[in-house]
């Protein structure tokens, strides 16, 4: 590391890594281009400051990890005349210097994009989103020529009736006592796997048939509903949970609803391994079965039974109804099944004729009740 003078002040920089950015930094107007909100951070390592910003925005651990991968490949991309540098070196550069390095007009964005040609559209979109956030944080404008590839719209994978039947049977016959509560809760509530693992005992109200999801995606709390099937599964699981709870000595872990054989809170990876075993037992390809598959199955089941999108959105915890709208894209096979099921159902008039006049009358509210409601 060497010292250089900028606007009358001595500062440190890395030799041979600035290139075009060094020329920009020597400009007297450079500091004025650094956003005022970053002035007080100018001498601090840019990566630590940016990660703190992501945490402030409540980005998930997975999102921060993905953004870090993109930032690593972007910052270590070399321009002509620059020396290769390691990620350890680049992430320790201060905000002031990296502001110039990240300038999209310097050509680094072009060189970085040229190295992403082998990525799938979804992965490419994720990388561009990460660097767009980084550039925006530095006050740079993403070039107009940066266009995210359009992804082919794929329908959520769901299970058919026979697959669902085999899965439930496999869960009921499984030697793992977690199989039945995991499958039942996921199919009954539409929870994300991370939300399922995060459930504590006190989050469930078995009498109200509801559960409070605390800190879901986007750190949003919401209430989910379930049926008597979940109540039976949870009640059957509780004696085993109590025995496993005695093995735990980790304080807060004791409140977890789902505990492993070691008495620890279940994690998403363990749940996926459990689902993989159930896939084999129910003769369903592993590629077709995951915790998220059960979430999609829950949503499409609601839609087929007449639930509106707003209700499904709230139950799933989607921040935007545009995310929920994908369930309207029903495949041809599902469309045929719904059509024939509706055609084979007896007409409403036949159902009414089968009912006696007395029974119909008892189903209808009295005039007194109507007046009270009004």
Which helices and strands, and how do they pair?
Layout: E1 2-6, E2 9-13, H1 20-26, H2 30-33, H3 36-39, H4 46-56, H5 61-75, H6 87-91, H7 95-101, H8 108-114, H9 121-138, H10 161-173, H11 179-189, H12 193-197, E3 204-205, E4 210-213, E5 222-225, H13 228-245, H14 268-281, H15 291-304, H16 309-316, H17 321-324, H18 332-344, H19 348-354, H20 357-363, H21 367-373
Antiparallel strand pairs: 1-2, 3-4, 4-5
Helix pairs in contact: 1-7, 5-9, 10-11, 11-13, 11-15
Summarize the structure.
With 374 residues, the protein is mostly helical.
Highlighted features:
disordered C terminus; single chain; 374 residues; 5 strands; hpI Integrase, Chain A; disordered N terminus; mainly alpha; two-stranded antiparallel ribbon
| CATH third-level topology of the largest domain | hpI Integrase, Chain A
How many domains, in number, for the residues?
2
State the total count of DSSP E strands: 5
CATH superfamily of the largest domain: Intergrase catalytic core
Question: Assembly type of the shown chains?
Answer: single chain
Strand order of the largest sheet: 3-4-5
Q: Supply the helix-strand structural class.
A: mainly alpha
Strand content: 5-15%
From the 3D coordinates, which CATH architecture of the largest domain would you assign? Answer: Orthogonal Bundle
Low-confidence blocks of residues: 1-32, 355-374
């Amino acid at each position: 590391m060497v010292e250089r003078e900028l606007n009358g002040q001595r500062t440190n920089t890395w030799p041979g890594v600035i290139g075009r950015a060094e020329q920009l930094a020597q400009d007297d107007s450079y500091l004025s281009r650094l956003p005022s909100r970053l002035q007080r951070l100018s001498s601090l390592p840019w990566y630590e400051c940016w990660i703190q910003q992501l945490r402030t925005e409540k980005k998930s651990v997975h999102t921060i990890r993905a953004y870090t991968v993109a930032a690593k490949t972007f910052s270590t991309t070399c321009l002509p005349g620059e020396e290769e540098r390691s990620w350890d070196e680049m992430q320790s550069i201060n905000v002031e210097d990296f502001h110039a390095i990240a300038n999209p007009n310097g050509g680094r964005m072009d060189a970085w994009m040229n190295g992403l040609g082998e990525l799938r559209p979804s992965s490419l979109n994720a990388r561009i989103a990460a660097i767009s956030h980084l550039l925006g944080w530095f006050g740079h404008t993403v070039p107009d020529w940066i266009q995210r590839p359009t992804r082919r719209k794929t329908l959520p994978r769901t299970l058919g009736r026979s697959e669902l039947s085999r899965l439930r049977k496999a869960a009921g016959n499984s030697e793992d006592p977690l199989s039945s509560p995991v499958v039942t809760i996921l199919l009954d509530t539409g929870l994300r796997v991370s939300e399922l693992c995060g459930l504590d005992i006190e989050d469930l109200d078995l009498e109200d048939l509801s559960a409070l999801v605390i800190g879901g995606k986007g750190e949003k709390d919401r209430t989910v509903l379930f049926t008597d099937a979940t109540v039976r599964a949870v009640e059957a699981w509780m004696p085993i949970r109590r025995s496993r709870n005695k093995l735990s000595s980790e304080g807060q872990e004791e409140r977890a609803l789902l505990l492993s054989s070691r008495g620890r809170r279940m994690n998403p990876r363990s749940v996926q391994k459990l689902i993989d075993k159930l896939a084999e037992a129910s003769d369903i390809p592993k590629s077709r079965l995951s915790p998220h598959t059960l979430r999609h199955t829950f949503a499409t089941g609601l839609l087929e039974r007449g639930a509106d999108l707003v209700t499904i959105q709230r139950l799933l915890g989607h921040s935007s109804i545009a995310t929920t709208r994908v369930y309207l894209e029903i495949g041809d096979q599902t469309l045929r099944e719904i059509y024939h099921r509706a055609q084979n159902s007896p007409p409403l008039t036949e159902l009414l004729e089968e009912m006696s006049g007395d029974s119909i009358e008892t189903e209808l509210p009295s005039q007194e009740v109507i007046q009270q409601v009004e």
